[in-house]
Every structure is written in structure tokens, then in C-alpha cells.
Amino acid sequence: VSFDQLDGYIWFDGEIIPWNEAKVHVLNHGLHYASAVFEGERAYDGEIFKLTEHTQRLHESARILGFTIPYSVEEIDEACRQLLAKQGMKDVYVRPIAWRGSESMGVSAQNNRVHLAIAIWEWPSYFDPEQKLKGIRLDIAEYRRPDPRTAPSKSKAAGLYMICTLSKHAAEAKGYADAMMLDWRGQVAEATGANIFFVKGDKLLTPTPDCFLNGITRQTIIEIANRRGIKVEERAIMPEELEGFDESFICGTAAEVTPVAEIGPYTFTPGEMTRALMDAYAAEVRPSLRAAAE
Ligand code: PMP
């Protein structure tokens, strides 16, 4: 079923309305000029993991694009919770999106109304579960993450996903599950919708997030590693270094922790560290398991 035909409700500019009534006009600035920012969250056992962090990032993404969402962080948190309760679902994906409306249709849109909508749907596993167990295969993308002087790379801006969709489609056309993108300097950056980690011996390595999203999942993995006394090195990583790494995984709200078996010519064997972090993350996000672990 197409996403515009699902059942349920959508929170739209302050009201909860039937799913099929949540429509916008074709002439809106968000569609034509990519003046849109969004979030991706997951609820586990009916509780949205790190909800306020996500809502704050949504506000910050909009601020970077020069617009203000007309609802406070508290109001948006509450809207997400209300919608979740109304939909009556426990384990779901949550997608808030803010965009500039239709009042003017040129590059300048200073006075266009800013809209906000929130949708919730079931998104069980971002990658094919069978592939996910063995580790997924990543292509190395041709497009690169842009220099922060070229694009607002800290914003979860819809426009930046053009590069991700191009890279993911090119990877899929070659039979890969996803792509690893380099940044404008040629350093390892991230996957098309997730951050990347490597394991070398007993330590974790991950690129410094200076031109891509410092994912909330990435930060959670670093917190878990710190608590367990696992050393984490955040630094520039050149693709040639992948030859010497033992394991790799990507992580993000949708992807959770997904082991990687191949990146271009480099191969990895998902091992103990990746498995331990997959389990620890699965426990961290679920209120009942988190309580049990504490
Ligand atoms: N990078 C990109 C390009 C993403 O789309 C995502 C998913 N939002 C991430 C990283 C990971 O972010 P998070 O862990 O906050 O979901």
C-alpha cells in the first residue's frame, strides 16, 4: 500500500486529522525549493526513545535553514505522544516534518507560513533481516558529503537527502544494500541514512561528525561504550585504512545497529563487539530492558 493510502491519523498544524486528509498543495516552497526539515524517531513499548533530543534537533535544523517552527519543543513532544496514543501502536517509527508553505513561490520565501506534520508508521527493520544478520554490503558512493561551506550539513534538511537517494539508488543498482559516502575531503563520512563505526582490536573508531549528522544513535553508542570502558576514537578516517579494521557497523534510528560485511573492496566479519553493541542498544531503547539493566 502506498504511504498516502494508509489508515490512521496524522498530526497536522496542531490538529489530529484522518491520514488521507493530510494533504498539501503542489505549489509549496518545501517541495519546489527543499525548504523542509524532518526527524526520524522510534518508539519502543510505546515510548519514543530520546524524544526531546530529536525535537530539539528538529528546531535546530529549521533554525539553520532560517525558519522557525511555530510550536515549542514541549508542544511537539506532546503532539508526538498524543499521536502515538491515538494510533495505539507500541513499536513504530515517528516522522515529524516542517516545511515552508505556499504564500510565495520564488527562491525568497521570507513570509511563507511554516507548517508541521507528524506521521507514525510501522517500520520493522530498515534492512532485510537475513542480510542484516550476516552483515550488509556497502558500495562506496561517488557523491560526497559537502563541505559545510557549501551546504548546511548540520541540518537534517530534506534537500541534503538528494545526495543520499542518488547514492543509495546507485548502490542498489549494483546489488548493494546501501552506500558509504566519503566527505568532500575524501574521508570516510557515513552511510545514506546512518552513521558508521569500525572495530580495531578492542577499540571503536568513528569519523568526527564535522560535515554530517552527529546521529543520536551514534551518540548513544558512544555513551554505551564509555560506560563499558570501551575506548572510542573519533577522528578522520581515510578509506585505505579500512583494510586494517576488524569489524564495521552502521547505526541510526531506522537502521538501529546493523553489522557491515563489505564496503567496496574491504571485507569485515561481524564479531563480538558488534554483537555486544547490538544487544546493548536493543536494551537501551526499550524501557523495560533499560530498567532491568540498571
Ligand atoms: N546520517 C544520516 C544521513 C541520517 O539520515 C541519519 C538518520 N537520521 C543518521 C546519520 C543517524 O541519525 P540518528 O541516529 O539521529 O537517527
TrEMBL record:
Its EC number is 2.6.1.42. The keyword DNA repair does not apply. It is an enzyme of class 2 (transferase). It comes from the Bacteria. Coiled coil: none annotated. It catalyses: L-leucine + 2-oxoglutarate = 4-methyl-2-oxopentanoate + L-glutamate; L-isoleucine + 2-oxoglutarate = (S)-3-methyl-2-oxopentanoate + L-glutamate; L-valine + 2-oxoglutarate = 3-methyl-2-oxobutanoate + L-glutamate. Its cofactor is pyridoxal 5'-phosphate. InterPro entries: Aminotrans_IV, Aminotrans_IV_CS, Aminotransferase-like, B_amino_transI, BCAT-like_C, BCAT-like_N, BCAT_family, Class-IV_PLP-Dep_Aminotrnsfr. CDD domains: BCAT_beta_family. One of its GO terms (molecular function) is branched-chain-amino-acid transaminase activity. Pathway: Amino-acid biosynthesis; L-leucine biosynthesis; L-leucine from 3-methyl-2-oxobutanoate: step 4/4; Amino-acid biosynthesis; L-valine biosynthesis; L-valine from pyruvate: step 4/4; Amino-acid biosynthesis; L-isoleucine biosynthesis; L-isoleucine from 2-oxobutanoate: step 4/4. Keywords: Amino-acid biosynthesis, Aminotransferase, Branched-chain amino acid biosynthesis, Pyridoxal phosphate, Transferase. NCBIfam families: ilvE_I, PRK06606.1, PRK07544.1. Belongs to the class-IV pyridoxal-phosphate-dependent aminotransferase family. Acts on leucine, isoleucine and valine. This is Branched-chain-amino-acid aminotransferase. It comes from Chelativorans composti. The gene is ilvE.
